[in-house]
Write a structure and sequence with these properties.
Elements: H1 9-24, H2 29-36, H3 40-47, H4 55-64, H5 70-81, H6 98-109, E1 112-117, H7 128-138, H8 144-157, E2 168-174, H9 185-198, E3 204-209, E4 223-227, E5 236-240, E6 245-248, H10 251-267, H11 271-283
Parallel strand pairs: 1-2, 2-3
Antiparallel strand pairs: 1-4, 4-5, 5-6
Helix pairs in contact: 2-3, 4-5, 7-8, 9-11
């Protein structure tokens, strides 16, 4: 079987989950291979996302690993069946960096997103004009076409919030984010008005971390933790900066970011107080 040298995000997620399930049961590659009556190298390739896995083999492994919940099994089978499928973002592969495309793929499949934003409004909640201003500032030599393409991509990402089972988005915004003049007062006022409107959605929670909070000392950039519907699948943390993007998959490390989110959330204003603050700041934009 040829080696898959360009696995999709879904294929990598399934591979990682199968390896974690095996190691959690303290089973060896040899024992997994015995279940499938195959060579250990086949299991290694599956767990490295270098090879796909047939549904019949997946079911046998899940039996061995003690995964009996129908919903969990169905979710993992869906990852296997749909592993090769590329999403809508693949249309923009010439513009998007591979890491950004991977993040969009993860976001599209996630059930929950926990976001700490210290500098900007999160992409899922940005207006078009706000996004254009951000892109122009971050990519100084961006062409008009690049700006519009990246703006369109960010708007299309929002479909995750309105699908049949919408993404649940939990956002902690530093108070200073609301006061930055991104794109000028008019653009910023419209952006803040949009945040107020978005907060009415049952699957969107926006809370503001006051400037006076000492938790700011523990925040060193935007962080998003993504959770997935399958209970066997571990969370992923995404840390972004101007020059790099970092994915963190090790459970112990992801837990540190999840705990950081909880600390920031505990220090934040309530949802009602946050909306009232956003409204006051918006009214002051002239």
């Amino acid at each position: 079987m040829p080696v898959n040298r360009n696995p999709t995000v879904r294929q990598r997620r399934l591979a990682r989950t199968l390896k974690e399930l095996r190691t959690a049961k303290r089973l060896t590659l040899a024992q997994a291979a015995q279940q499938l009556a195959c060579a250990e190298s086949k299991i290694s390739r599956i767990e490295a996302a270098q090879s796909g896995i047939r549904i019949v083999d997946l079911r046998l492994l899940l039996d061995l690993y003690g995964v009996h919940d129908p919903s969990t099994r169905g979710g993992l089978e869906a990852l296997s069946r749909e592993g090769r499928l590329r999403g809508w973002w693949d249309r923009y592969s010439e513009t998007l960096s591979p890491l950004y495309a991977d993040y969009i793929a993860l976001e599209a499949d996630a059930s929950d997103a926990y976001s700490i934003q210290t500098l900007l409004v999160p992409g899922l909640l940005q207006t078009e004009d706000y996004t254009r201003a951000v892109v122009r500032a971050q990519i100084e030599d961006a062409t008009a076409q690049q700006v519009e393409t990246l703006t369109k991509v960010r708007q299309e990402r929002r479909s995750a919030l309105s699908r049949e089972e919408p993404l649940r988005l939990w956002v902690v915004l530093s108070e200073s984010v609301l006061k930055h003049q991104i794109g000028g007062p008019s653009v910023m006022r419209d952006q803040l008005d949009f945040l107020v409107a978005a907060s009415d959605s049952p699957n969107i929670s926006i809370q503001v971390l006051p400037e006076a909070s000492e938790v700011h000392a523990a925040l060193f950039g935007p962080v998003v933790v993504l959770s997935f519907p399958e209970t066997t699948e571990t969370d992923v943390a995404y840390v972004d900066s101007l020059l790099s993007t970092l994915y963190i998959e090790e459970p112990d490390e992801v837990l540190k970011y999840a705990n950081l989110f909880r600390r920031a959330l505990a220090e934040s204003l309530s949802r009602t107080e946050s909306v009232a603050l956003i409204e006051r700041i918006a009214k002051g934009m002239v």
